[in-house]
Amino acid sequence: MSSLVEGRNAVIEVLRSDMPVRRIMLADGTKDAAPLREIEKLAARRDVSIERVARRRLDQLSEHGAHQGVMAEVEPFQFASLDQLFAASADKPRSLVVALDGVTDPGNLGAIVRSAEVAGADAVLVPKRRSAAVTAATFKASAGALAHLQLVQETNLVRSLERLKEAGYWIAGADAGKGSQLAWDVDLDGRLVLVLGAEGEGLSRLTREACDFIVRLPVAGHVDSLNVAQAATVLAFEWVRRGEAAR
């Protein structure tokens, strides 16, 4: 089994990372452009073969038809563990983890990983069940961030949150309708886990009970909430803002 990464920027980031890449597939007739030249340079540096294929072949393989004429075939995605996260973050006074409870859309997962990586998070945490698979759509939406951020997968999300507490993290759940405090009024700083649930269902009861506090974002318009990826971005960058303000 292998995974496919599609899109020029996503393929570039994969080649820049340590992810094992089996081959690059480039559509016949693709116009020469700076991103393609960068892909060729990086592939040569890593001794990864580039195969010319018919564009219709990439169309068949693509999840959404947005491959931009290039795909990378990579080794099956390797999840990290909480122990690996703890090893990387043990001595950090500030560390951000985004935990997802029942988020099953691969595109949302990728978008959340992208925002978390840009914000400087140490990991995104997902459970083994009721979670999106890592697909080409996930890689595409992450814009290559999956190659640089730990995606931690554990069997029991609630037990994982308990272990994070033991490691000095505060657990902040996000709920548009039931959050008791505005995010701006809570100290979203330091060692923090942001927990977001599936759209519609929100956080499960056990996950909610494992949180230290529940926050919500203020709403000024007619639509009552952001989607989960947008909410993750806003909350992650509130953590960034707090850190910048403290300097």
What do you see in this structure?
This protein is 37% helix and 23% strand. It has 9 helices and 11 strands. The chain has helices at 8-16, 34-46, 55-61, 82-89, 106-118, 136-142, 157-166, 205-210, 228-245; strands at residues 3-6, 21-27, 49-53, 70-74, 95-101, 123-127, 150-154, 170-174, 181-182, 191-197, 213-216. The chain has a 7-stranded parallel β-sheet, with helices on both faces. The protein is elongated and about 55 Å long.
Order of helices and strands: EHEHEHEHEHEHEHEEEHEH
CATH superfamily of the largest domain: SPOUT methyltransferase, trefoil knot domain
Strand proportion, as a percent range, falls in 15-25%
Number of domains: 2
- CATH level-two architecture of the largest domain: 3-Layer(aba) Sandwich
Count up the helices. Answer: 9
Which whole number gives the mean pLDDT?
90
Query: How large is the radius of gyration?
Result: 19 Å
Distance between the terminal alpha carbons, to the nearest Å? Answer: 47 Å
CATH topology of the largest domain: Alpha/beta knot
Helix content: 25-40%
Oligomer state equals single chain
CATH class of the largest domain: Alpha Beta
Salient structural properties:
247 residues, alpha/beta, 60s Ribosomal Protein L30, Chain: A, Alpha/beta knot, 7-stranded parallel beta sheet, 4-stranded mixed beta sheet, 9 helices, 11 strands, 37% helix, elongated
Brief overview:
This protein is an alpha/beta fold and 247 residues long. It contains 9 helices and 11 strands. It starts with a strand and ends with a helix.
